Amino acid sequence: MTAIIDRDSLVRQGHEFSAPPQNTEAEEGVLGGILLDTSALPRIKDKLTPDAFYLEAHRIIYRGCLVCLSRDGMVDLMTICTYLHDKKQLDKIGGQAKLAQLVETVVSTVNIDKYVELINEKYLRRQLIELGRDAHYCGHETLKRLDESFSYLKEKATELQSLVGGKDRNHSRYQQAVQEFERLEMNIEDSGFRFWEKNRLCKKYADVGIKSVKDLENLWFSHMSSQEDEGFKSIQEIFNTVPPQREWFLHGLLPAQSLVTIHGPGGCGKSTLVYDFIYSLVTGTPWGSDSFNEGFSTTAAQRKIMLIQTDETLGEMVTAFHRRGITEDMPILLKMKWSIDKIPQLLKKAQEWKPDVIIIDCLTSVSTYSLFSENDVEYARPVLRLRKLAEQMNCCIILIHHSNKAGGMRGTTAIQNSSSEVISLEPNPDDKNPDSTKRLLVFNKSRSRRPVSYELELIPDTGTWSCLGEHKKHEDAALTTTKNKIIKFLRSRPNIRFEVAEMQNDFGGSTGNIRTCCAELARDGLISKFSLGRG
Question: For the AAA+ ATPase domain, which residue ranges apply (predicted)?
Answer without folding.
Answer: 256-430
